[in-house]
Design brief:
CATH topology: Aminopeptidase
Order of helices and strands: EHHEEEHEHEE
CATH superfamily: Gcn5-related N-acetyltransferase (GNAT)
Number of domains: 1
Radius of gyration: 15 Å
CATH class: Alpha Beta
Number of strands: 7
Distance between the termini: 30 Å
CATH architecture: 3-Layer(aba) Sandwich
Helix content: 25-40%
Shape: globular
């Protein structure tokens, strides 16, 4: 893996919304606007569920990847989290996802998380990354044509 850039992971800031929307559309195939994401964030119940979002930035401070951990409100367990992670296509295979994941693993350790799950397209870069990182396939979601991966962190 070639890393010819300096990567810094930092907390998400509102000025990152346009880059986040771009990555969700292009890297994840999710058709969302900046306003869609803002509304989602405004509706999040922080009093009951945790959520943390970070971005990886290049030398100029441009967000080139993002990661998010949050509780799963539909299947709530205070030590179970869902992961979203995407890297802008031109910046893939340069250590960006690894830098984000290293940061988020520390967040999970601080929260004494036991399980983290993610959803991705089958046979795509997300699935390949999940398998390389130690996640294991845990099922297909036919409604969304995606697969679920899971990583057990504690109490295995």
């Amino acid at each position: 893996m070639a890393t010819d850039m300096e990567i810094r992971v930092r907390p998400f800031h509102p000025h990152d919304y346009p880059r986040l929307a771009k990555m969700k559309c292009e890297a994840e195939g999710e058709q969302v606007t900046v306003e869609d994401i803002r509304r989602y964030d405004e509706r999040w119940d922080h009093s009951r569920f945790e959520k943390v979002r970070v971005v990886a930035q290049d030398e100029e401070g441009v967000a080139v990847g993002y990661g998010e951990l949050h509780h799963e409100p539909d299947q709530f367990d205070p030590r179970r989290y869902f992961l979203h992670l995407a890297v802008d296509i031109p910046y893939r295979r340069r250590g960006v996802a690894t830098a984000i994941w290293d940061h988020l693993r520390e967040e999970l350790a601080e929260r004494e998380a036991t399980v983290v799950r993610l959803r991705t397209a089958p046979m795509g870069p997300g699935a390949q990354w999940a398998e390389r990182t130690g996640f294991r396939w845990s099922g297909d979601e036919r409604a969304t044509a995606t697969v679920l991966y899971e990583l057990r962190l504690r109490g295995r």
